[in-house]
Amino acid sequence: MDLLGVDRAKATTEMTHTRGPKVRLSWLRDVYQECCDQELWECATRAYLLHLVGCTIFTNKSGMLIRVSYLLLFRDLAAYGRYAWGAATLAHTYEQLGDASFSDIRQIVGYSTLL
């Protein structure tokens, strides 16, 4: 709530709708637009970055949801540029590749271009 500048009711409604600690990418785009309209630039930056990693690095099979736990990576906007994003991407991709190796799984998730 604090990092994206949304109130408790709006956050609770979204978490109830997604049935867990996830948000829809469309909801995140709306939050980004609201933050820009209200000139809350740090919140808008966090919403944009969360949307970016949700669409590229840390994608999931739904293609529409992103875990809010990744938002903590953007708490300090001065520090996120020092993170090892390549290593995080590789670890996530390898984890998804391991999951995709099971016989009942039909697709792989993640930024498969890196494979």
UniProtKB/TrEMBL annotation:
Aminotransferase-like plant mobile domain: residues covered: 16-114
InterPro entries reported for this sequence: AminoTfrase-like_pln_mobile, MAIN-like
Species in which this protein is naturally found: Vigna angularis var. angularis
Coiled-coil ranges (or none): none
GO biological processes: meristem maintenance
Domain of life: Eukaryota
One Pfam family per UniProt: PMD
Lineage: Eukaryota, Viridiplantae, Streptophyta, Embryophyta, Tracheophyta
Entry protein name: Aminotransferase-like plant mobile domain-containing protein
